């Protein structure tokens, strides 16, 4: 079964940290590319960070967020430090298998000022 399951979201004060996890099916995780996206209320979904042979970050999170993967656990991570109220959003894990893109159900991150 192809699936992505995010966890780790929550409520945190400005300046705090959270680590998001995404447990992926092996067929998705074996694909070199995976990414984290987020969607704030009333806004379009946007790329936060991606990982393949290199990592890529949105300008708004560079220096604060780190994407990584644990191949032994088929798990993708997003370490988020120095969180700001504008980081409040639902965060989604994204990956591909057999040319088809898949999304997780999302995890809510709320940063209070």
Task: Summarize the helices and strands and which ones pair or pack.
Layout lengths: L3 E4 L2 E4 L4 E7 L1 H4 L4 E6 L6 E6 L3 E3 L7 E6 L4 E6 L8 E9 L2 E4 L3 E6 L1
Parallel strand pairs: 2-11
Antiparallel strand pairs: 1-3, 3-8, 4-5, 4-9, 5-6, 7-8, 9-10, 9-11
In short, what is this structure?
This protein has 113 residues and is mainly β. Helices cover 4% and strands 54% of the residues. It has one helix at 26-29, and strands at 4-7, 10-13, 18-24, 34-39, 46-51, 55-57, 65-70, 75-80, 89-97, 100-103, 107-112.
Structure description:
The protein is mainly beta. Strands 2, 4, 5, 6, 9, 10 and 11 form a 7-stranded mixed β-sheet that branches. The chain is built from 1 helix and 11 strands, in the order βββαββββββββ. The termini are far apart.
N-end to C-end Cα span:
40 Å
- The string of secondary-structure elements, in order, is EEEHEEEEEEEE
Supply the helix-strand structural class: mainly beta
Largest sheet: number of strands, sense, barrel closure: 7 strands, mixed
